[in-house]
Amino acid sequence: MPQDYLPVFFQILIAIGFAVSTLTMSIVFGRSAKTNKMKDSAYECGMLPVGEGSPRFSVKFYLVAMLFVIFDIEVVFMYPWAVQFRDLAKEGATALASMAGFAGILVFAYVYALKKGALSWKS
Q1: What are residue 47's DSSP bridge partners?
Q2: Which residues of the chain have pLDDT under 70?
Q3: In the prediction, which pLDDT does 49 show?
Q4: What angle do CA 90, 94, 97 make, to 5 degrees?
């Protein structure tokens, strides 16, 4: 049984050896450049960097984006059900009840987000 893992072990050893040898050669043969303030500054397409790197955004933008993604993904789950609804309705009310339960959970989550103030921009 251990002989079956021998090729995997050799491949791991070769990968580690390649990484270590590449890093070692870059340290040994690489030139270390002299540093100065001009070379160490950020390059922004020829513009001088002024101010902070990126402005701060409110967490509310990310929260609304996450809620959008969550509810958008739920619509992706509803689409195949809607396409097959006629065939599912012939078999019984189970399909309608299961989707009503699913939509009920979504409504509960939406009401919870509203109560928590996730969509309120004023607070």
Answers
A1: 44
A2: 44, 47-49, 51, 53, 123
A3: 64
A4: 120
